[in-house]
Amino acid sequence: MEPKYAACVVLAFSLMVITTYYLQPHGVVTDATQTASLSLNASQSPAKKISQRMFGLAFEEINHSGAGGLWAELVSNRGFEAGGPNTPSNISPWTIIGNEASILVSTDRSSCFDKNKVALQMEVLCDVDGENICPAGGVGVYNPGYWGMNIEKGKRYRVVFYVRSLQPVEMSISFIGSKDQKLATSDIKDDNVAEWKKVEMVLEAYGSDANSRLQLTTSKRSTIWLDQVSALPLDTHNGHGFRQDLFDILAALKPGFIRFPGGSYVEGDRLMNAFRWRETIGAWEERPGRFNDVWQYWTDDGLGYFEYLQLAEDLGASPIWVVNIGISINEQVDTSLIMPFVQDTLDAIEFARGDASSTMGSARAAMGHLEPFDLQYVAAGNQDCWKKNYRGSYMKFYNAIKGVYPDIKIITNCDASAAVLDHPADLYDYHVYTNANSMFSMAHNFDHASRNGPKAFVSEYAVTGGEAGRGNLLKALAEAGFLIGLERNSDVVEMASSAPLFVNVNNQRFNPDAIVFDSSKVYGTPTYWMQHLFKASNGATLLDSTLQSPSSLTASAISWTDADSGRSYIRVKVVNFGGNRLNLRLAIEGLDNKSIESAGSTLTTLTSTNVKDENSFNEPKKVAPVINALKNASNKMTVIIPPYSFISIDLQRKSNVIQDAESNGVHASL
Ligand code: AHR
């Protein structure tokens, strides 16, 4: 071949290789094995402590996370308020049993509850005898809950409702399965219902169906008013109203904090619909509920401010309350008019922290929590920094809160990673939603952030877009790379949480999410499982490490102690965001082989055959961490890192010389 042609061929081939390398789509796995090395010092001084609250949860009332999710109430629109305060109103999802010849159903404003006046009126036209005989089973209404109620054999459910009638009432209250089978039932007869009366009963199910409904029926000609109909399983977490399986999946992450109640939900599309803590406390029957106009659904506010604080306490996580500072997505209160909002927030803090004799603390005590909640963080607004009134209103909130509660840490919406803030703050909120490549490369985002200003609270991060599917391995790996970067920068990053946390599969308002559920089942996406490998980091010691590798690899190392077992470990986490297998040479200084307990050392791998793989109700753990014994664990060893994988190498130390200080209560196993 002539040299000029040979040169062309070489050039073309090189271009092909370069193009292949750079344009290689995610998921292409090659046979080539590359090498990389990671060296670290296990006895570095001074120790670099990672925040006790580094990794936690961002809970938002989105995707029916609370109403129809973590909050175990089975009845949707229990007070008939979802159709608005004016009547006649839409009572959906309530449905009429019977036809117009047998029953007329409407709403009026005759409720005994001042804050939610709408009640249901049933005019029963049929009877047990006479000309117009009621159909078998009677007439009335039923509520399907949130895409079906999960009724389980042997379980007990507290049903409460308010009733009034011009005649004595005779009613049946039943759970009915999807094949119209009765799962539990109770009858009431009452002559004394001329005034509103509370009826309470416990139904024990003798059958199971995840797609059940609650029905209230009668076969007696009468006019009956109903209001505030509730059905709650008795086995909620600690009796606090949290659906146990959804609580458990959160608790398994050992979250350092929980941010609530949003997100954009805090802002509201319109201020009139924004979360208002005061309307969510006290007796559930008195809560007016709200239309979640950002995510377009009604919530009865069973999960209110008190319950959020209780949830944080039950999870052993610091509550981070995001407060609306007079700014919705479409409106802004003028700063000159903001003081009532400020006072409202001071009242809320007193509700959480005041002693039981204080004005607001006594309201909390009346709800059954005598001791104050441990509220230490208040975030001022959500994604509002760019808005005209933000700084002015923020300062009013900041000064007022610090004046009364100097220890409370206030979180600004303004990004201090790139520029010095023009206002005081203890932390700054940082959100990132981006594609997988950019998320992975954001591992370096905080490398050059100022070391002097407030620390970052990365309260929302997620890979979004079509490539993330409904939460696949690719998403999780890119996010794991990002979190490794946060961990390495834990001197300037205090806390981090992925978002959104939950999705009820029947009403996804934001995709993808970390945890998927329906009325009876739940599974974690790879993003959820990825976070398990970070839970040991809360309160751990960051070890400096030097990585020599292709740019598709990132790694961090910590030293941590399991508070339960007292055992100490070196944990090395590595994300391989490329299609090549790697041989990683690990060299640990300051740890001799005699002090490694090989039998207790493990290698945990999160990967799958296809980087686009997802979990599902049928295969809930298709992509989940797999733990293997690490044979021949040593301070110098080579570990094979599979393509598109996240691994955690845990070397157990023989002597527990570094306990207590970094004890974080995390088990070696998942
Ligand atoms: O996490 C979903 C939404 O994304 C949040 O409500 C908002 O803060 C962000 O834009």
UniProtKB/TrEMBL annotation:
GO terms for molecular function: alpha-L-arabinofuranosidase activity. SUPFAM superfamilies: (Trans)glycosidases, Galactose-binding domain-like, Glycosyl hydrolase domain. Gene3D superfamilies: Galactose-binding domain-like, Glycosidases, Golgi alpha-mannosidase II. The keyword S-adenosyl-L-methionine does not apply. It catalyses: Hydrolysis of terminal non-reducing alpha-L-arabinofuranoside residues in alpha-L-arabinosides. Keywords: Extracellular matrix, Glycoprotein, Glycosidase, Hydrolase, Membrane, Secreted, Signal, Transmembrane, Transmembrane helix. It is found in: Secreted, Extracellular space, Extracellular matrix. Pfam families: Alpha-L-AF_C, ASD1_dom. Its EC number is 3.2.1.55. SMART domains: Alpha-L-AF_C. The chain crosses the membrane at residues 5-23. The keyword Signal applies. Its main location: secreted. It comes from the Eukaryota. PANTHER family: ALPHA-L-ARABINOFURANOSIDASE 1 (PTHR31776:SF0). This is non-reducing end alpha-L-arabinofuranosidase. It comes from Salvia divinorum (Maria pastora). The gene is ASD1.
